[in-house]
């Protein structure tokens, strides 16, 4: 913990992360995490090619007699679109899964349709009950935590898991990658798989029970850790986001949105307006910091990028009017949400509070260490 303002000497992470820690050289814990995870989880060059080919062969064997070898989530963003491009290029038979939560931009819809058509990939779209989901999103805004994207993140993994069970497909190929997504402060967002947390916020601030919302219960989550296999495919290639975008634009007609996760109107507004305005969190810090550590940009260039508005001010105003109206709020109600005292994940009931509490902390750490060791042994055996 640090008193007074401080920024990392290597990246852009600063004391807007209340839990940031700096070493004697002024380098933050997120940079050290990036370096550690690069060594642990990233395999590139010839070794990466060989490891990935083993995984692909394994997925094909497991997919025999089934309609698909694997599932991929698609949002229209660069990472998920590049995953679709890669798995098809490798001869796999993926089912693309998209969750429509009511906030897709027009460009996102076009990008998804054009990409999958050109690649010849089947699409399953899960459409959330809008009234139910709208109530849940408003509940999270009223909870005054920085976790308002949690419901969408939770639901897409629930949908992927449900389909994997139904289709008996073991492998879920993800676009998450260490190079560009490691500077992620827990204080800025947590509880992605914590159904108790989501349900508690809804009970306190929502308008009714969540009857149809896709979710992952406590035991289901841990069962799927053992029965499903998540493959972060971008960790096994020499992934460069800028180069990936060029390939997608040239070969698939894909078009950029102007920011990470801006394929969703709500995400664009939440990350570009609500988080910085209410909490002082600028998600560009984390995205750019990972790119600095991965060598895709320089610290000076990233600082210049951070000096720019999060996105075009006129679009922010348009988004604000659209989002407030779509959520059924008045301007006064939205202002009250922005000005309400800030809360955190730990202010509400959750599985996390139970598991990481003093009674179960030791048992939780043992289970976590066992799972990590299991994953490491599997990784070494396959390599």
What descriptive keywords fit this protein?
single chain; 383 residues; alpha/beta; Rossmann fold; five-stranded parallel beta sheet; 16 helices; 54% helix; globular
Verbal overview:
This protein has 383 residues and is of the alpha/beta class. It has one domain: Rossmann fold (3-Layer(aba) Sandwich), CATH 3.40.50.620. Helix content is 54%, strand content 7%. It contains 16 helices and five strands. It has helices at 29-41, 45-62, 78-89, 106-119, 130-143, 150-167, 195-205, 218-227, 241-252, 265-279, 283-293, 299-307, 313-326, 331-339, 351-355, 361-382, and strands spanning 70-73, 94-100, 122-127, 171-174, 229-232. The longest helix has 22 residues, at 361-382. The mean pLDDT is 92.
Topology summary:
Layout (H helix, E strand, L loop, with lengths): L28 H13 L3 H18 L7 E4 L4 H12 L4 E7 L5 H14 L2 E6 L2 H14 L6 H18 L3 E4 L20 H11 L12 H10 L1 E4 L8 H12 L12 H15 L3 H11 L5 H9 L5 H14 L4 H9 L11 H5 L5 H22 L1
Parallel strand pairs: 1-2, 1-4, 2-3, 4-5
Summarize the structure.
Helices cover 54% and strands 7% of the residues. With 383 residues, the chain is α/β, with parallel strands linked by helices.
Rg over CA atoms, rounded to whole Å, is 21 Å
Mean pLDDT: 92
- Distance from first to last alpha carbon: 38 Å
Order of strands across the widest beta sheet?
Answer: 3-2-1-4-5
Task: Name the helix and strand elements from N-terminus to C-terminus, one letter apiece.
Answer: HHEHEHEHHEHHEHHHHHHHH
Largest sheet: 5 strands, parallel
Assign the CATH topology: Rossmann fold
Number of strands: 5
In terms of quaternary structure, the protein is single chain
Q: Please, how many helices?
A: 16
């Amino acid at each position: 913990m640090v008193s007074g303002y401080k920024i990392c000497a290597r990246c852009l992470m600063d004391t807007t992360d209340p839990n940031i820690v700096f070493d004697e050289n002024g380098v933050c814990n997120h940079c050290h995490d990036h370096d550690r995870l690069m060594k642990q989880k990233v395999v590139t060059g010839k070794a990466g090619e060989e490891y990935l080919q083993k995984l692909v062969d394994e997925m094909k064997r497991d997919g025999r007699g089934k309609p698909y070898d694997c599932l991929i989530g698609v949002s229209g963003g660069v990472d998920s679109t590049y995953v679709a491009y890669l798995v098809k290029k490798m001869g796999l038979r993926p089912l693309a899964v998209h969750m429509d939560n009511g906030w897709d931009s027009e460009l996102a819809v076009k990008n998804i349709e054009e990409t999958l058509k050109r690649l010849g990939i089947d699409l399953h779209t899960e459409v959330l009950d809008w009234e139910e989901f709208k109530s849940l999103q408003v509940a999270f805004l009223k909870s005054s935590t920085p976790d308002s994207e949690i419901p969408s993140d939770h639901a897409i993994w629930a949908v992927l898991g449900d389909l994997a069970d139904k289709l008996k497909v073991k492998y879920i190929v993800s676009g998450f990658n260490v190079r560009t997504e490691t500077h992620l402060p827990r204080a800025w967002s947590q509880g992605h798989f914590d159904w108790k947390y989501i349900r508690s916020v809804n009970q306190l601030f929502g308008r009714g029970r969540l009857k149809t919302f896709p979710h992952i219960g406590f035991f289901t989550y841990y069962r799927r850790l053992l029965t499903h296999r998540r493959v972060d495919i971008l960790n096994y290639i020499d992934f460069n986001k800028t180069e990936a975008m060029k390939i997608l634009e040239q070969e698939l007609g894909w078009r950029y949105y102007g920011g990470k996760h801006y394929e969703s109107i709500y995400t664009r507004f939440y990350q570009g307006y609500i988080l910085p305005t209410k909490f002082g969190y600028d998600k560009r810090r984390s995205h750019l910091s990972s790119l600095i550590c991965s060598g895709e940009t320089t610290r000076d260039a990233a600082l210049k990028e951070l000096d720019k508005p999060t996105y075009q001010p006129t679009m922010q105003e348009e988004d604000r009017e659209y989002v407030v109206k779509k959520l059924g709020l008045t301007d006064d109600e939205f202002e009250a949400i922005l000005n309400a005292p800030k809360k955190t994940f730990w202010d509400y009931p959750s599985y996390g509070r139970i598991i990481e509490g003093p009674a179960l902390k030791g048992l939780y750490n043992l289970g976590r260490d066992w799972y990590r060791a299991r994953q490491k042994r599997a990784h070494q055996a396959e390599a």
